[in-house]
Amino acid sequence: MGRRLAELLYRLRTEGDTPLLQSLSVATGVLVGCLPVYGLHLPLCIGLGRLLGLSRLTMYLAANLNNPLVGPLLVYAEIQAGSFLRRGSFYPLSLAALREVRLADCLVDLALGSVAVGVTLGLLAGVAAYAVLREGGERRFRKLLVDRAAQPYLDTGYPQWEFVRGKLSFDPVYLHLVTSSLLPSRGRLVDLGCGRGILLALLSAYGEVSASAQRPEGWAEPPELELEGVEGRRRVAAVARRALGGRARVRWADLRGLEVPPCSAVVMLDVLHYLDGELQRDLVTRATGALGEGGVLVVREADAGAGWRFAVTVGAERLRSVLRGGPRERFCFRSAGEWRALLEAHGLTVSVEPCHRGTPFANVLVVGRDRRATG
After folding, report:
1. Could you tell me which residues come within 8 angstroms of residue 185 by beta carbon, excluding any fewer than 6 positions away?
2. What does the DSSP 8-state code read for residue 343?
């Protein structure tokens, strides 16, 4: 039952998954929602969506244009539209005139007007949706890359697939790391606190997609990296291992005291703030010591000096901690300048850049490079 439910949810989330079909789904859903057949909108969306090959989920969401707040105004507009189409005039807005109106006429006007209003609003909504969803070359490639990276997580459960797909779509750090030139082109990359292995999956998929589709201009060449991840939560590490298979090595281990293997790059995304100040320095020391000549250490953390954005970030972390159901966690954040100083104290050449595009968070990307690379 669980497997069949997951397959159903996956079909509903991915059917009609092109800009044109999604736009047609929106247009058809709005038309269905305008019809005064209350209680039948869902069956109509299911039937028409299956018949026309459209997204049934998108159609039903669009049909909810007709809701308790908008419904009365929509019915009024449809009756008036039907009256105008039949007789060339609108119903007068007076009680005396309304007493003369026959119910049968209103129902006929409502039926005719609902189609007219539905077609008009559906066309407008469909055109607007297509303007938003239409894919240029870069957007098409990005979508293909995200889909390829998330696909293996279906075998670990539908919620895992949905989570990974959402992170890749809305968290800017993953695509930025893969498409920029921050990471080395060869060697070993170690992702400390890799979670479900999202970055590792994306790096693996990047090479596969680049081999079959034209890579957008300005995107980095796919790196040829040996991928390794370390995760301290046993169940999460198991998800990563199952999804990644032989494309990356994932270990379950505590980062405190972990011996970081020799590598060309170490990545820590939202990891250090779970450790106190002394453990942060210790982990950075071990990570830096593992880097070869020209190696790079990439840290994504929140900037404690970022005002309201930082408050939002801390709130989200505390909510996540509660949802995990574990003991209350303590966080150790630093300002962007302090994160820079932490890496510079280990002999790295450091750059700091914002990494919160499209989100309300205070994230910054701190990149430290081995100074031997710059002479």
Report:
1. 221, 223, 224, 225
2. H
Q: Which amino acid is at 321?
A: S
**Residue 193 is encoded by which pair of tokens?**
């606190």
Q: How confident is the model at residue 374 (pLDDT cuts 50, 70, 90)?
A: very low
What tens digit of pLDDT does each residue of 172-218 get? 999 999 999 899 999 999 999 999 999 999 999 999 999 888 899 88
Sign of CA dihedral 86, 87, 92, 98: negative
Q: What DSSP state is assigned to residue 370? A: E
Q: What is the mean pLDDT of residues 282-287?
A: 96
Distance CA 25, CA 54 (A): 6
Contact between residue 196 and residue 239 where contact means Cβ atoms under 8 Å apart: yes
> Quick one: pLDDT at residue 4?
76
pLDDT digits (tens, 9 = 90+) for 123-155: 999 999 999 888 777 888 999 999 999 999 988
Residues in contact with 152: Cβ distance below 8 Å, sequence separation at least 6, in sequence order: 201, 243, 244, 245
What tens digit of pLDDT does each residue of 301-349 get? 999 999 999 999 999 988 888 877 666 778 999 999 999 999 999 999 9
Taking the C-alpha atoms of residue 236 and residue 183, their distance in angstroms, rounded to an integer, is 25
Q: How far apart are the first and last CA of the chain?
A: 61
Alpha-carbon distances, residue 355 vs 166, 176, 193, 270, 274 (angstroms): 17, 9, 18, 12, 19
> What are the b/e assignments for 131-142, b being 16+ CB within 10 Å?
eeeeeeeeebbb
Residue spans in the chain of domains classed CATH 3.40.50.150: 137-374
Fold of 137-374: Rossmann fold (3.40.50)
Q: Which of 124, 129, 119, 116 is nearest to 21 (CA)?
A: 129
Q: In 3D, which of 142, 140, 210, 214 has the Cα closest to residue 176?
A: 142
Contact criterion met (CB below 8 Å) for 145 and 206: yes
Q: Is the dihedral of CA 73, 79, 82, 83 positive or negative?
A: negative
Look up the pTM and report it: 0.81
